[in-house]
Target: Galactose-1-phosphate uridylyltransferase
Amino acid sequence: MTILERFVVGVIANSDYTDLDAIYLKNRIMALVGEEQVNEETDETFLIPLKNRLVDIAVENGKCGILQEEKNCLGAELMDFITPIPSVLNQSFWQTYNESPAKAIADFYELSQKNDYIKVDAIAKNIAFSTPSKYGDMQITINLSKPEKDPKAIAAAKLAKASDYPKCQLCMENEGYQGRINHPDRANHRIIRMKLGEETWGFQYSPYAYFNEHCIFLNTEHVPMVISRETFVQLLDIVEMYPGYFAGSNSDLPIVGGSILTHNHYQGGRHTFPMEIAELTECFTFKGFDSVEAGIVNWPMSVIRLTSENKDDLVDLAEKIRLAWRDYSDDAVDIIAYTGDTPHHTVTPIARKRDGKFELDLVLRDNHTSEEHPDGVYHPHQDVQHIKKENIGLIEVMGLAILPPRLKEELQEVEKYLLGQEHKVADYHLDWAKQIKITHPEVTAETVTGIIQGAVGNVFARVLEDAGVYKTDVTGQAAFKRFIASVGIK
Model:
């Protein structure tokens, strides 16, 4: 069969199209990719490789530009043939959900992979490993899934006409959007509408997932991130609606927040993070909240865990803690709530449902800066920024490091250094590399990768310690307990 015929057969097999639509589909596809070369023979049967070849043919036929962004737009348009329109998909999702929430979620996840919205092949390029620490195993990824920007694409983006549509990559207007040089392709993107209280929200998957079933819950309105009582209500509603998923929010302040503060959203998925399985070092009960179990989590960041069968009590206590933290200062340990009228305190909340009980982790955050730490007192300090200098957001808070792609080659050079080979170790890694060599004089070609991975894990644990407002030493934990006592415990 020809590549065009194979693709049409695949579209019909994976959509509501029937054999009667075959001629129509051929013509619509040729309109996109051109009529030359589409009749080349192929044994390929999988849709995504067929789509990739059709995109290449379109480039050769002059129907598509040579930049990766242009190819992506056409690829998404081709995969849109197997993607139900939003109204049909939403109706199907909720009909299935009424019978089986798990099946509805699984079906939507499968579609999002099958239609190449979730970039499965690209995600597989990521380097992932776990390393032990005194807080439990840390999960490390070097993110290679997002392609580096082509200099030609960067130049083209500068020349592209400015547009505020969609306003950001989380807006509902991305659904079905063709894409352009400076905004990603979204023709095959779909969003499930859902109610959180009186608000309409969307549920979608992340195209470049950092963990299993990585999803995003987004406000249908373009409104900024705000952590409030309603945040806790919504997160707990989500984990009840989506069995097996956690739900969490980045905090709502710069430095300690996520990369998109302009659009209110949460993240979730089916993944067990190191922080989730970390044990409690202290247990206590807050006054007036006998139904809520509370404790300090054994974690490099400062985490209060609340557990209860009663969602209302959980929300009320979480809000009480948030408000107390918002205005709490302790000069003895450099905890500063305000500089003038500028607030510094917020929380990173994470919700789960485990063993029939609701669970909320409140991670205390402080974004004030100093002369010594201009990037943030509770931001990765200079001596660890050779590994991680970006903000510590929700995912990293929970123990999964998202490290930059530069580290793939840079760590290979450190390996060469440790093995006494010719190397080009970056200057900012050199002191670290020397320390590793002193610590591991017995390094061999068989052990060097594991040693480097362990060293990276140690740095990441230190990064989280830097981000922790209360340090794990005696002084820090005593100060942590002072704050908890100020909220009111039995």
User: Anything to note?
Assistant: The chain has three domains: 3-64, 87-121, 122-160+191-401+470-487.
